[in-house]
Amino acid sequence: MSPFTSSPCPLVDEQDRVFAVLAGRPRDSQEWSDINEKAMEAFEEARATLKLTEKQTANRQGDYAAVSVGISFGGGQTRPANFSLTGKKQAAVEKLLSNGAVCRLAGFGDSCMRLFAARLHTYYEETLVKLQQADGYLRRNLKDNAFAAATFNLGPQVVTVPHTDHMNIPAGWCAVTALGRYDHTAGGHLLLWDLKLMIEFPPGALILIPSAILCHSNTAIAPHERRYSFTQYSAGGLFRWVECGCQTQKDFLSQGGAYRVAGEERWRRGVEMFSTLQELRANGC
After folding, report:
1. How far apart are CA 174 and CA 195, in angstroms?
2. Angle CA(40)–CA(44)–CA(48) in degrees, nearest 5?
3. Mean pLDDT of 154-172
4. 262: pLDDT confidence band, cut at 50, 70 and 90?
5. Which of 25-29, 177-181, 247-251 is predicted with the least confidence, judged by mean pLDDT?
6. Were both Cys, which of 17, 31, 56, 175 would link to 109 (CB 3.0–4.6 Å)?
7. What is the chain's mean pLDDT, rounded?
8. Contact 44, 99 (CB under 8 A)
9. What Å distances lie between residue 38 and 30, 41, 52, 105, CA to CA?
10. What pLDDT, on a 0 to 100 scale, did the predictor assign at position 54?
11. What is the tens place of the pLDDT at every residue in 207-223?
12. DSSP state, 195?
């Protein structure tokens, strides 16, 4: 088991590439504890406002309330679009996105990807810019944030089953922030099944992982405890849409288009956007 440390801990592959980061929390632990409390209160308020039924609190990843916002593409969509939300849900997520504590969490996730995977962050940002240039109706969740979408896992006990986020870009990162009041030494651990890792994941901590390819889940917490999470990510279909000239792959191919590189080469180019430990050290990380 990997215990929690306040210092960032990169996970590297055989070629010294940083494919995930246990980013932890900012150094001002008391201020960040306050951020955790304020975000948790906002999540609780949103769940109470939405008055979700028992059926609405079950999803593919576990039995808890969740609502997503931002730009999506997949699951039968013919083009990128913002998540379709009812009036009540739209109002709830807009209030969450305007919450100061939530904005701090989102900004920390974006900043950590920029710091530990600069090329990947640029790829996300440039893709998002091109999407919005092609379609003015597409809205970012937050200004200067490279992630296309986010999910508020509203709890009250976010315990996920083993899964991969198969709609996300494979060689990309999902920023996962844990929130709540629970003993992180006894429960709420992040499990990375492919790596056989069990990682302490305390409230307010951030972890960035390639969630599309790493099977992950988290352990249960005590009945009286509360756990929530905030995730930021980008669907793989968005990048494919842009690379096809802002059209579907089917339309692109029907017009005689052809990918410049094969799938294996695309994967290689994807992982080359990961930083190496040597690069991070040279940049003072």
Report:
1. 17
2. 170
3. 91
4. low
5. 247-251
6. 175
7. 89
8. no
9. 13, 5, 22, 11
10. 65
11. 999 999 999 999 999 99
12. G
* Lowest-pLDDT range of 86-95, 208-217, 262-271, 274-283: 262-271
Distance CA 14, CA 220 (A): 32
User: Which amino acid, residue 35?
Assistant: I
Two structure tokens written together for 259: 């990918």
Tokens representing 104? 């701090």
How does pLDDT run across 61-83, given as a tens digit for each residue?
Answer: 777 888 999 999 877 778 899 99
3-state secondary structure of 146: coil
Q: Tell me which amino acid residue 261 is.
A: V
Q: Report the pLDDT averaged over residues 246-256.
A: 69
The tens digit of pLDDT for each residue in 106-120 reads: 999 999 999 999 999
Rounded to 5 degrees, what angle do the CA atoms 248, 152, 88 make? 90
What is the C-alpha to C-alpha distance for residues 18 and 87, in angstroms, rounded to an integer?
41
Tokens of 198: 């069990």
Q: Please, are residues 189 and 201 in contact by the beta-carbon 8 Å criterion?
A: yes
Which positions ≥6 away from 244 have C-beta within 8 Å?
251, 252, 257
Strand 65-72 relative to strand 174-181: parallel, antiparallel, unpaired?
Answer: unpaired
Chain-centre distance for alpha carbon 64: 17
- What is the pairing mode between strands 18-24 and 206-209? antiparallel
Distance of alpha carbon 28 from alpha carbon 280, whole angstroms? 22
CA distance 259 to 252: 9
CA-nearest of 23, 24, 5, 18 to 277 is: 18
- Burial group, residue 150, by CB count within 10 angstroms (0-12, 13-18, 19+): buried
Q: Confirm whether pTM is higher than 0.70.
A: yes
> In this structure, what token pair is assigned to residue 89?
């849900």
Is residue 196 a contact partner of residue 167, using CB atoms and an 8 Å limit? no
Q: Cβ of 183: how many Cβ atoms within 10 Å?
A: 12
